[in-house]
Write a structure and sequence with these properties.
8-stranded parallel beta barrel, single chain, 9 helices, TIM Barrel
Length: about 270
């Protein structure tokens, strides 16, 4: 399996503990993991509550499972004042883990004040991230960054060159109602992370890969031709139990490696 491919810990739900989740991810053959630290949702790690020993223990656990953390998912409500504080803690955690990419969204932006808070927060966070040699990946999705096109316009107004895009094709279909193969063209120059997540219009969950209607081969061709050499993170919604999730993940990996051109990205 490619060492540029991570399994997001969110695939195993918000209530299962991280140690158990990492064991499952390792057992599937993954070499990379994307760790969720999303306040009030997927808090598989809570940086505000962690000491150096906790971080060292996590690193040792990952090493024992032959897993490398490729990205931290630290989505915070940046339209609210506490969002900046939370994101700063997650950037520091990202640095302490030796990870180079932190993904975040904007959170819900409903008025001008929240939009101002967002731009202030992302610019302040970007300064710290730059000092720590970390890239911030704004993930497409939500009401403020629903598409690559909109996200591209937002990035132009951010005063930092270390803020890029985490493109999530399922989110752009869910929130932006656009064709990802057309929409992604707006952010190819800013692409620094990519979520492999499928989409079903009649479902409230993001299904196993291949069970939705996203043309991944077309997207992989586009990013390959653009020279993308970054990481990928698989996201499949958790439902029922771990055994069901493992089955869905195996189906997803089979689809990804045997029914798309994903492997061509590494040859």
């Amino acid at each position: 399996m490619s060492n540029r491919l991570a399994c997001a810990t969110s695939c195993y739900g918000e209530k299962n503990n991280l140690e158990q989740i990492l064991k499952q991810i390792s057992s599937l053959g993954f070499k990379g993991v994307e760790i969720m630290s999303i306040p009030n949702w997927f808090e598989h790690v809570v940086p505000e509550e962690m000491h150096k020993k906790d971080i060292d223990d996590l690193k040792k656990n990952l090493a024992s499972l032959n897993l490398k953390p490729l990205a931290i998912s630290g989505h915070c409500e940046l339209g609210k004042k506490e969002g900046l504080r939370q994101l700063i803690e997650r950037i520091k955690f990202t640095s302490a883990m030796g990870v180079k990419i932190i993904s975040t969204g904007s959170g819900m932006i409903k008025n001008n004040d929240q939009e101002k808070n967002f731009f202030y927060a992302i610019n302040q966070a970007a300064e710290l991230a730059q000092d720590l040699k970390i890239l911030i990946a704004l993930e497409t999705g939500g009401n403020y960054l629903p598409t690559g096109k909109k996200t591209s316009n937002i990035i132009k107004n951010i005063k930092s060159n270390n803020v890029g895009v985490n493109y999530d094709p399922a989110n752009t279909k869910a929130w932006g109602k656009v064709n990802p193969a057309e929409d992604i063209k707006y952010i190819l120059a800013d692409l620094i992370h990519f979520h492999i997540k499928d989409y079903q219009a009649d479902s409230k969950i993001f299904p196993p890969l291949g069970a939705g209607n996203i043309n991944f081969s077309q997207l992989f061709d586009l990013i390959s031709n653009a020279g993308y050499s970054g990481y990928f993170g698989i996201e499949v919604d958790y439902r029922n139990d771990i055994s069901t999730t493992n089955l869905n993940m195996k189906k997803s990996l089979d689809f990804l490696y045997n029914k798309t051109n994903f492997i061509n990205l590494f040859t």
